[in-house]
Amino acid sequence: LQRANQGVQSLSPYQAGKPIEELERELGITNIIKLASNENPFGFPASAKKAIQDQLDNLTRYPDSNGFSLKQTIAKKFGLKPEQITLGNGSNDLVELFAHTFVSEGDEVIFSKYAFIVYPLITKAINATAREIPAKDWGHDLEAFIAAINDKTKLIYISNPNNPTGNFLTHAEIDNFLAKVRSDIIVVLDEAYTEFTAKEERVDSFGLLKKYPNLVVSRSLSKAYGLAGLRIGYAVANEEITGLLNRVRQPFNVNSLALAAAVAVLNDDAFVEKTAENNRKELKRYEAFCQKHGLKYIPSKGNFITIDFEKAAAPINDALLRKGVIVRPIAGYGMPNHLRISVGLPEENDRLFEALLEILGL
Ligand code: PMP
Questions:
Q1: ipTM for this prediction
Q2: Ligand 1: which atom is nearest the Cα of residue 95?
Q3: Whose CA is nearest to atom 5 of ligand 1?
Q4: Does residue 238 lie in a domain region?
Q5: Contact 166, 305 (CB under 8 A)
Q6: What's the gap in Å between 192 CA and the centre of ligand 1?
Q7: Angle between helices 346-360 and 269-292 (to 10 degrees)
Q8: Which residues fall within 8 angstroms of residue 272, CB to CB, at 6 or more apart?
């Protein structure tokens, strides 16, 4: 342990959702469902599969380090300039890149309690000081964020919708917050789940970039776009910030298959709309299920719902696993009574409902 840097000594490894194959091996059964990692329940998009097949003969070459085609695609889709875009090996890579670019040892990074666990992980790994702000109704308390800002503050992470709670901040709340933050502090708006929020409710985050030069918006292609296994995300900021990120970014951080698949799926609106529509309907069924059976839950704008069992959730999780249903325990987030459940296809959700009713004796 002493070999690790001081910050690393205080860390615990990230706990990912249990892979289906692992539970298959453990239980010796095959009909397992995984509602644990907020993945796309429709599986890998056909448009991306075709793009990948077309790339297979090209894998001897390094990928396009600047991601020309993908940046063009993103820029065109959202009315941005390619020079505003940074590509990442998943948005996790970007979350880390922001800290490496803007934060030195001893600086302070602000984020919310119960926000995405990679924020404290990377902050501590670079020996910066984590200012974890107590949550308000499980979500971000932006007034407390403002109060926590001091001379050492360099970076603020906001996850919207927030993982693992699904809490959501409105455009006006984000706008008002940004107006109060010093412009030398970088604010990262992590929108990994934004496609699941109704269009009319979404934050116009790219619009806010025009007003706030210290804003960085981060997006993922792992969720609504269904490319989790390929690892790709993108960040949008002004050209100056993007230039700084590009100094630190590893030259070939995104592979050729991911680049090609991302272009295809960003042009595949039907796939994303089908995904969001299923999520909207099924999230309502989760809420109705919880209400009917007296289960507490946190209202969510993401593709998951977090249920409060008001008692230790670990035995419930174990019982679900024995029934071949993988969900996500979040005791590591300081939420030992909750389980986070990713919204699946209707038949997967039915199986989860049935299993929970049996386990809870409802
Ligand atoms: N941000 C948030 C809020 C997330 O929940 C996740 C996925 N767990 C990520 C970023 C990273 O996703 P990816 O690296 O797959 O893009």
A1: 0.99
A2: 10
A3: 163
A4: yes
A5: yes
A6: 6
A7: 20
A8: 195, 224, 225, 265
- Residue 64 domain boundaries: 46-267
- Residues 203-208 have a mean pLDDT of 98
Q: What is the pTM of this model?
A: 0.96
* 347: in domain: yes
CA 159 to ligand 1 centroid distance, Å: 9
CATH of the domain at 148: 3.40.640.10
Number of other residues whose CB lies within 10 A of the CB of residue 308: 16
DSSP string across 146-162:
HHH--TTEEEEEEESS-
d(CA 239, CA 241) in angstroms, rounded, equals 6
Same domain, 216 and 254: yes
Q: Ligand 1 pocket test: which of 86, 93, 97, 116 has the largest number of ligand atoms within 8 Å of its C-beta? A: 116
- Residue written as token pair 């990928």: 63
Asked whether residue 116 is domain-assigned, the answer is yes
In the chain, the number of structural domains is 2
Which whole number is the average pLDDT over 187-192?
98
pLDDT tens for each residue of 309-353: 999 999 999 999 999 999 999 999 999 999 999 999 999 999 999
Domain closes at, from 219, 237, 267: 267
Q: Residue 334 — left, alpha, or beta (φ > 0 → left; ψ -120 to 50 → alpha)?
A: left
Distance of CA 191 from the midpoint of ligand 1 (Å): 9
Residue 156 CB contacts under 8 Å (≥ 6 apart), including other chains: 109, 110, 111, 145, 149, 181, 185, 186, 187, 188
Is 276 found in the same domain as 261?
no
The CA 69 to ligand 1 mean position distance, Å, reads 23
Q: Please report whether residue 1 resides in a domain.
A: no
Q: How far apart are CA 235 and CA 87, in angstroms?
A: 6
Q: Phi/psi zone of residue 37: left (φ > 0), alpha (ψ -120 to 50 degrees), beta?
A: alpha
Sheet holding 296-298, edge to edge: 296-298, 304-308, 335-342, 328-330
- Residue 10 reports pLDDT greater than 90: no
Ligand 1, CB within 6 Å, residue ranges: 90-92, 95, 116, 159, 163, 190, 192, 220, 222, 228, 233
